[in-house]
Design a protein that fits this description.
Blueprint lengths: L9 H28 L4 H10 L4 H8 L6 H12 L1 H20 L2 H12 E2 L2 E2 L2 E4 L15 E5 L4 E12 L6 E7 L9 E6 L6 E6 L10 E12 L7 H17 L6 H34 L1 E2 L2 E2 L4 H29 L8 H23 L1 H4 L6 H8 L9 H13 L5
Parallel strand pairs: 3-6
Antiparallel strand pairs: 1-2, 4-5, 5-9, 6-7, 8-9, 10-11
The chain binds flavin-adenine dinucleotide (FAD).
Keywords: FAD, Flavoprotein, Oxidoreductase
GO molecular function, one term: flavin adenine dinucleotide binding
Organism: Streptomyces sulfonofaciens
C-alpha cells in the first residue's frame, strides 16, 4: 500500500508540469474559439494525441497511480486549461472506465485502443447510460438488450440522451436492461462496435457551457451486436443475475454496472471542478491587483480581498476532499461515509461559487466574452449536474451516513 503524503512525488510533479504546459500553451489559447464554434476540437485532441496526453497509456498510468493522485492531478490541469476542450479530451475515459470496471481482459485489450485510435487518426468513445426518462433515476431505464441465442447476438433498442461524444464516437458503451424484474440490478453494459447498423445520433444539444464538448442523443434501433460485446461475458452476467434474484429475495442491495462506473469517476469530476475554479480564481486575483478604482487597486478593499481569500480556501478544501477520495479508491479503502460523493459535491458547488465571485470581481469585464471568467462560470454549472446532481450526491451521503432509506 502506498504511504499517504500530501506531497506529489518527483514523477507526479513532472507529469503535472507537462500537462499544465499543454493546457497553457495549447488548450487555453483555443478555448474561446471552440466555445463559440460549439464543435468538437478535433485538432486539439489530435495535438494531445501527438504528445501522448490523449492516449490509453497516459490515462491508464494516471488511473492506476498507486497514490490515487495521478488522475485528479491531470484532470485539474487539463480543466484549468478549458473545461469544454478538456472534456473532449477526457470524455473517452468515462467509456474506458466502463470497460475497465466491467470488461474481461480480452475486452479491455480489444476495445479500449479502438476508443482512442492513434495520433494520425484520433477516435473518441461515448458512455451512454442516461435516458430521457432516466436521469437521476437510473432504475427507470428502458433501453432493452435481448439475447438471441440462435445467433449468439444481443439486440439493443432504446434512446439514450446526454451522451458525451454520442453519435460521433468510434465505440459506444451502452447500459441496457437485461432483466426488467430486477430494476437497476438487471442492467448490463455493452460495447457497440464502430459502424454497427441501427445506432444513430439524435439531437445534438446546444448548451449553456462546456460547448466544445459534443453532447447528443443516441438512438438504438434493432442494433445487433455479437455475444462477445456483453461486458464481462454471459456466464458472469447469468451468475450476477442469479445472485441479484437471491439477494432481492433477502432484501440485500447490490451495485449495478452503471453505478460502479459513476462511483469510480466521481472524485475525477471533483478534480475537473477544482481546475475550472482555480483558473477563474487566478484571473480574478490578477485583475484585482491591477484594476484601480478610487485611486488604488480594488484588492485594497477588504470586500474584494476577503472574497479572494474565501475563493482560494474553498478551492484548496475541495482539492483535499478530491485527493482523499482518490487515495481511498486507489488503496481499496471502503467509502464508509460516501467520501467520493462528498468530494464531487463540495468541489462542484465550490466551482460554481468561485466562478461567480470571479465574474463579480471583474465587474463589467467579467460579464463579457473578452475575459475568460464568463465562459468559466458557464462551464462550472455542469459539475453540479452530470455524474449525479448535487441533490443525488447529498442523498448518497445522507443514506450512507444514516443507513436510512432517505428520499
Ligand atoms: C453536458 C452533459 C453531459 C453529460 N454526459 C453524459 C454521458 O456522457 N453519459 C451519460 O449517461 N449521461 C450524461 N449526462 C447526463 C447526466 O448525468 C444527467 O443529466 C444527470 O444525471 C441528471 O439527470 P437529468 O438531467 O435527467 O435530471 P433529473 O434527474 O430530471 O433531475 C432534475 C432535478 O431534480 C433533482 N432531483 C431528481 N431526483 C431527486 C431526488 N430524489 N431528490 C432530490 N432532488 C432530485 C435533480 O437533482 C435535479 O436538480 C450528461 C449531462 C449533461 C448536461
Amino acid at each position: 500500500m502506498a504511504e499517504f503524503t500530501m506531497e506529489l512525488n518527483d514523477e507526479q510533479k513532472e507529469v503535472q508540469d507537462w500537462v499544465h504546459g499543454f493546457a497553457a500553451q495549447v488548450i487555453r489559447p483555443a478555448a474561446a474559439e471552440w466555445d463559440e464554434r460549439e464543435e468538437t476540437p478535433w485538432p486539439v485532441i489530435q495535438e494531445a494525441a501527438k504528445v501522448g496526453i490523449y492516449s490509453l497509456d497516459f490515462y491508464a498510468q494516471q488511473y492506476f497511480d498507486p497514490t490515487g493522485l495521478g488522475l485528479p492531478m491531470a484532470m485539474e490541469e487539463l480543466f484549468w486549461g478549458d473545461a469544454g476542450i478538456a472534456l473532449s479530451i477526457v470524455g473517452t475515459g468515462l467509456a474506458a472506465v466502463g470497460v475497465l470496471a466491467n470488461g474481461t481482459e480480452e475486452q479491455i485489450g480489444t476495445w479500449i485502443p479502438q476508443m482512442y485510435g492513434d495520433a494520425s487518426d484520433v477516435k473518441v468513445a461515448a458512455f451512454c447510460s442516461s435516458e430521457p426518462d432516466a436521469g437521476s433515476d437510473v432504475a427507470s431505464m428502458r433501453t432493452r438488450a435481448v439475447y438471441d441465442g440462435a445467433k449468439d447476438e444481443w439486440v439493443l433498442n432504446g434512446t439514450k440522451t446526454w451522451a458525451t461524444n454520442g453519435g460521433i464516437a468510434n465505440v459506444h458503451v451502452v447500459v441496457a436492461v437485461v432483466d426488467p424484474e430486477l430494476g437497476s440490478k438487471g442492467h448490463a453494459s455493452f460495447i457497440v462496435p464502430p459502424g454497427t447498423p441501427g445506432l444513430s445520433q439524435g439531437q445534438k444539444f446546444k448548451k449553456h457551457g462546456i460547448r466544445a464538448s459534443h453532447t447528443a442523443e443516441v438512438v438504438l434501433d434493432d442494433v445487433r451486436i455479437p455475444g462477445s460485446c456483453l461486458l464481462g461475458g454471459k456466464d458472469r452476467l447469468d451468475e450476477r443475475l442469479a445472485r441479484a434474484r437471491e439477494r432481492a429475495k433477502g432484501g440485500e442491495r447490490l451495485k449495478n454496472a452503471a453505478m460502479a462506473t459513476f462511483e469510480a469517476s466521481r472524485p475525477a469530476v471533483g478534480a475537473m471542478a477544482v481546475g475550472t475554479a482555480r483558473a477563474a480564481y487566478e484571473v480574478a486575483l490578477d485583475y484585482a491587483k491591477t484594476r484601480e478604482q478610487f485611486g488604488r487597486p480594488i484588492i485594497d478593499n477588504q470586500g474584494v480581498a476577503f472574497q479572494l481569500a474565501d475563493m482560494r480556501t474553498r478551492i484548496d478544501a475541495a482539492r483535499l476532499l478530491v485527493w482523499r477520495a482518490s487515495w481511498m479508491a486507489a488503496n481499496g479503502r471502503p467509502f464508509t461515509s460516501a467520501e467520493g460523493s462528498m468530494s464531487k459535491l463540495f468541489a462542484s458547488e465550490a466551482a460554481k461559487q468561485v466562478t461567480a465571485q470571479a465574474v463579480q470581481i471583474l465587474g463589467g469585464n467579467g460579464f463579457t466574452r473578452e475575459y475568460p471568467v464568463e465562459r468559466m462560470h458557464r462551464d462550472a454549472a455542469i459539475y453540479t449536474i452530470f455524474e449525479g446532481t448535487s441533490e443525488i450526491q447529498r442523498l448518497v451521503i445522507a443514506r450512507t451516513l444514516s443507513g436510512m432509506p432517505i428520499r
